[in-house]
Amino acid sequence: MQFLIRVVLVLSAVVFLVPEQSGASIIFRSGKKAEYVPPGEEEISGNSAEIYQIAQSAEKEGNRKRAIRAYKTLVKRHPKDALAPTALYRAAQLQEEVHLYTPAADSYLQLVERYASSAHFDDAIEGQFRVGEIYLNGKKLKVLGIPIASALDRAVTIFANVVRTAPFGTYTARAQFDIGLAREKQGANDAAIQAYQAVVDKFPNEPVAVDAQYQIGYIWFTAAQLGTNDAAAAANAKTAFQDFLFHYPKSEKASQARKNLDILEHKQTNNSYKVAKFYDKQKYYRAAVIYYNEVIRQQPGSEESNQAKKRIDQLRAKFGDAALQPAIPVSQNAKKKADAHEARTAGSGPARPGAPNNEAPLPASESDSSLPPPASLSPDTTTAPEPLLPPPGTSTSAGSDPSNAPGAPASPEASASPAP
After folding, report:
1. What is the pLDDT at residue 405?
2. Which helix (H) or strand (E) holds 27?
3. pLDDT tens, 9-26?
4. Helix or strand run (H / E) with residue 312
């Protein structure tokens, strides 16, 4: 009896002392050293069903890395098998879960390109869009270790793939808008306006077209405020905001668009008034009267207009009408030339003018630092669509950079380049 007890105790000790089998493998290859492979890293083989089962088992065990390898192996070895689309989609989902965002986007793209008839097609488009917005909004950048500029480039690539592979999909208009937003954040404003204009042209009935049209105006508006070539930028901004109010008069952004137009009008009037005062101070009264009259024409009833009328009356009483008439009649072409010259020389600083035909260098216009926020990226409860995803975190870009539209007379990027 004592012998049996001793045997049981010995066997129990052996069970506790012998290490548990790890599942690791030692792989021997002809002509090579033995290679240790950690558990779960062994080569995956078998037919499609067997490999799919390996992936499923790895998922249940929480080994997502091995599950991804198995799913990708299935797609590589059996691309035409019925399980391949589902395996590829599940691999993309797992890659996204472990923050492998670029490989996830590539897997989603591979699915929509190779398996367009798959039941997972729309979900893969949504997955691409979701990853694109992660890069666009700068989330997880510390984890990814990716510079912001590179992240924005990746976002543009992903959104462009969404537009290309699903031109009539649920996320297409928003992806096109986000291309513009990414380019605007980069300061690539010519490309930003082109992207926003594509939204307006191709998706005019989509709620995001409201934001796109407003943003076009705001980019030019910023150029008009901060740039040296502000005359052309102001004209483009006015056109864009007028188009916005014509097409979307009930938008919550309509009030801000009207305020922006008022600012542009007042800035133009204020510049004309400064030019008039400059010539007045230099005793070139004929040129001064021309610009005083321009102030009256631009904003009748304004404070500057009232001051301009008062000063014209004073000059007329002192010198008479004849002395204030232009020495040489100014034709329409000459007037256009003078206006163009004014725009070119507005930032060159004051200089003593020549003959009173408005060909003299004009004083520099002051920058207006009281810019309103770009309301185009704020939530618009009257026009915004229901969220396509959990709130992507798109934020207002208060420092929108100027950009250029196709066919515009001047590039806003040449006017100003404020920090994004």
Report:
1. 40
2. strand 25-27
3. 545 554 444 444 434 444
4. helix 303-319
Q: For residues 353 and 279, is the Cβ–Cβ distance under 8 A? A: yes
pLDDT greater than 70 at residue 244 = yes
> DSSP letters along 315-329, please?
HHHHH-HHHHS-SSP
Q: Name the DSSP class of 101.
A: H
How would you class 189 by CB atoms within 10 Å of its CB: exposed for 0-12, middle for 13-18, buried for 19 or more? buried
Q: Which of 241, 240, 220 is nearest to 232 (CA)?
A: 220
Other beta carbons within 10 Å of 314 = 11
Q: What are phi and psi for residue 339, nearest 5 degrees?
A: -65, -40
Residue type for position 256? Q
CB contact set of 134 (below 8 Å; sequence gap of 6+) = 101, 140
Instruction: Extract the tokens encoding 339.
Output: 């206006």
DSSP 35: E
Residue 36 sits at φ, ψ, to 5 deg, of: -85, 130
| Dist CA 188 CA 399 (whole Å) | 13
Beta bridge partners of 25: 37
**How many residues comprise the chain?**
420
Alpha-carbon torsion (319, 320, 322, 327), positive or negative: positive
Cα 264 off chain centre by? 24
User: C-alpha angle with apex 301: 234 to 343, nearest 5 degrees?
Assistant: 25
Three-class secondary structure of residue 391 per DSSP: coil
What is the pLDDT of the chain when averaged over all its residues? 74
pTM, entire model: 0.62
